[in-house]
Design a protein that fits this description.
The complex is a heterodimer of chains A (142) and B (528). About 8% of the residues of chain A have low confidence. Chain A is built from 5 helices and no strands. Chain A has one domain. Chain A is globular. Chain B has 2 domains: 164 residues, Rossmann fold (3-Layer(aba) Sandwich); 345 residues, no CATH class. The radius of gyration of chain B is 27 Å and the shape is globular. In chain B, the strands form 5 sheets. In chain B, strands 12, 15, 18, 19, 20, 21 and 22 form a 7-stranded mixed sheet that branches. In chain B, strands 1, 2, 3, 4, 5 and 6 form a 6-stranded parallel sheet that branches. In chain B, strands 8-7-10-11 form a 4-stranded parallel sheet. By secondary structure, chain B is of the alpha/beta class. The chains are: A mainly alpha (142), B alpha/beta (528). Chains A and B meet through helix 4 of A and helix 2 of B.
Amino acid sequence: MSRADIVKRQLEAISAEADVEMAAVRAALPALTKEELREHLRRFILYKFLLDPDCEEEDIRRLSQMSIEKLLAMSTRDLNTSDLGIGCGGTSSVDNKIILLFMALGRELEITMDPLRTPSLKTVPLLTEEVYTLLKEAGRVL
Amino acid sequence: MDPRVENAMMTTGMKKAIDVKLNVQPIFVALYHEHVFEGPCRFGAGDELKKEYDLALDAMIYDRTKEAWATMFDPQNVNVLEPIIIYRDETFLTTDWMLEEMGKTSKETDVYLFATASRPYDLIVEFAQRIGKPICMMQDCCGSSIVIPACRARGVECYAFTDVEDANLTFSVLRVRKALSELKVLAVVRNNSNVSISAPDSFVSLEDVTMKFGARFRFINVHELMDYSHVNNDSTQNYTTPGRHDGMNITEEEMKEAEAMADEFIAKADECHMERDMVVNTFRIYRTIQKVMNAYECNAFTAPCPDVCATRRINEEKFTFCLTHTLNNENGIPSACEYDVPALFAAMLLQNVSRCPSYQGNTITAPKIGGIRQFVPRGALLNIESVQKADVELGDLENVCLTFHAVPTRFPKGFGTEMEPYSIRSFAHSGFGATVRYDFKRDIGQTITMARFDPTGTKLLVAKGTICGGVGYGDRNCSEGVFFQVENSSDFFQKQLNFGNHIPLVYGDWMKEMIRLGEVLGLEVITA
């Protein structure tokens, strides 16, 4: 197995861990507490961003930057699955990761996140508040 | 009474040029794609091609841009209005609603600052053509180098900035241009409201100046002004405007204010070589001029001293305008000797660029030829012993010039800075006309920046020098002066010949700012 294949398998495994966190959120509904949601979201973000699950940083932009730094530290040859950002109109990799993260989150939890509110969800607690409110408005938490 | 009649006499008082701010309206134009597709100008995969992705991205870029707009500009110069965001999809429609929304603050906006997500270039160009105000952008990839040439080709004034410093420089000079357009000069007139006897090197036409720069003039007859300086609570007693109850004679209370100002002026001086009543008398005309300027909503001042001198009224009233010019300039009210309007306007530019009070005077080169400093007056105008002393102090320095008039500032290092030491001497040998005497020798080595408009109002002289001496601190008359070195005094003189006698100056090197200002004013800038 090539080194690139090994890295790819590692990334898929980490991605699966992120899926587990979302599955846990869905399973905990409707009794899910805000604290539980926050912990699942925190771990979901860390897995999605390929960061250490013990990382205590809560600023989502900073986490995205750390993720990019980690990706850049890997050899580009190893990163066929890299999600370094590309885009029309000046998308930065950091922005790209955050937007894709939120879109994935909305899809996993079947909630409609307002894209215009993206910049205001700067931290894990703020994101938790937003997601919890959306779940509540949809009658999916008590 | 009908409020329309009452409002006819309602004034807003003086609005100083240094307080004028440039109102910048930021507009962010965002693009989103309604449909999912990839093509030559749209890249990405999966979620990146969805409308939600575009909207989130637009929001993030806008959020950061808005945050930067709020802090990147000098708040002394710029007032950033609430940003406007315009969304557009890949249909690339320009609707009237968009244009109206973008222009909704046009009444107060001076400059539009654009930032974009994606390619709304045609929309900006159409808006710029219709709104008739300057537009600008920070350099980006690649809107600035598309929009700006497109707008310039269509006659729109526009700018793009390489960095924040560049943006602040441009905004600072646009602010001064705005302030110049809001300048309203109280111009004291005796015979001719366009030029005075002593300064025919003033603007050929004040009407042209108003048309070109927007600055306006409010003329007042010198005899009416002089009569207002007579303390009288009953304005109907004014000799020049008999029976009018709306005259502006200085009241007893205002005269007390003038006396208090005079006492403070004397108390703060290192030396006072005048009788108190003569200093008070000088403040009498200063206080009167402030009253008239407020009533006429003026924020600049000039008076034709030689024309008035010839009436003998200055001699009779026992004051000169010198101290009024000094105090006005110290208070951010451009004020020029001898009805010299190009000097007044140049002083205004210098004061507003540097935020320092300016000094103006007769400016001559003083080359040393045959062991003698040439062209420096010796005798009635400049005390011969003081000039001889200056000769010795200057030694063999080359490229020396002299600017002299009794209107120095006590705050040469900036408005609101610590007052520098000064003394008080009369202008007249008989003891009237308080003037500030400042020892420029204290500031040897200090860089100065000078400027003057030419008589046609189409050129601006901008020059730099270094203080190398002073004269007249211990003398009366116009003799107060500063010697300075320029790079080439012959070149300076030849260039001065296209401009005029009085060349205002401020401390500091403001060449870059003044040159840029001259350019945005549409002037041919001559440097020396």
